[in-house]
Recover the amino acids of this structure.
């Protein structure tokens, strides 16, 4: 498809389990972002990739959270030893980087999100 | 102090009125400013972006930026019930492209 694709759309897991959330960005977008959104809050920045490298991971809450983007396209957000406080909607977004002469408005294109519930 | 601050609302306006949404930001180095609309249960979608001081109009929407006051606003003219949503203010602090969002203002347009 033409948009950002996230899977799974819903994930219910038990406290202490490991979870992987996948994001497939818009083709050609080199910038990829992960955000977390709790009810009634705005999206909270987690990590930003430019190509394969994490340009800024300052938003990852602790070392239980890790994200990869090995080929500069699909990204996986990994959460170890999940806690009830990790329950939220995890949003992925992509954008043009502004490199290679592509006009970058800074617009983020969001996927539909992965709703994580930790019981 | 939060990086991007918004009144959470709800802001209720009658149909046909002007809705005024406000946002302040803390980083004076911020370069790009965005308004996203988020319907309940959906993902954010871009409404407006603005880079320069002053006003920018697009249809019923006007974004206003005042960098000296670190203030950005969104005006929605002739508000419609379909405008009822949460409006997120977002700021790009330049250098690279980290985009920071406010908590959002919930707008209710009453028919």
């Amino acid at each position: 498809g033409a948009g950002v694709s996230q899977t799974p759309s819903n994930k219910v897991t038990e406290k202490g389990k490991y979870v992987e959330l996948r994001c497939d960005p818009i083709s050609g977008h080199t910038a990829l972002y992960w955000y977390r959104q709790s009810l009634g809050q705005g999206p909270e920045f987690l990590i930003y990739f430019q190509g394969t490298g994490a340009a800024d991971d300052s938003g990852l809450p602790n070392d239980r959270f890790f994200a990869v983007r090995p080929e500069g396209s699909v990204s996986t957000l990994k959460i170890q030893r999940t806690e009830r406080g990790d329950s939220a909607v995890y949003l992925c977004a992509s954008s043009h980087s502004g490199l290679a002469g592509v006009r970058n408005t800074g617009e983020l294109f969001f996927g539909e999100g992965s709703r994580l519930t930790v019981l | 102090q939060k990086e991007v601050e918004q009144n959470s609302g709800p802001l209720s306006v009658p149909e046909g009125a002007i809705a005024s949404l406000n946002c302040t930001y803390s980083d004076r180095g911020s370069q790009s400013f965005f308004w996203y609309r988020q319907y309940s249960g959906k993902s954010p979608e871009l409404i407006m972006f603005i880079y320069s001081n002053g006003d920018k109009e697009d249809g019923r929407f006007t974004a206003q930026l005042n960098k000296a006051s670190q203030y950005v606003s969104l005006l929605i003219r002739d508000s419609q019930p379909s405008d009822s949503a949460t409006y997120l203010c977002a700021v790009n602090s330049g250098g690279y492209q980290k985009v920071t969002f406010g908590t959002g203002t919930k707008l209710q347009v009453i028919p």
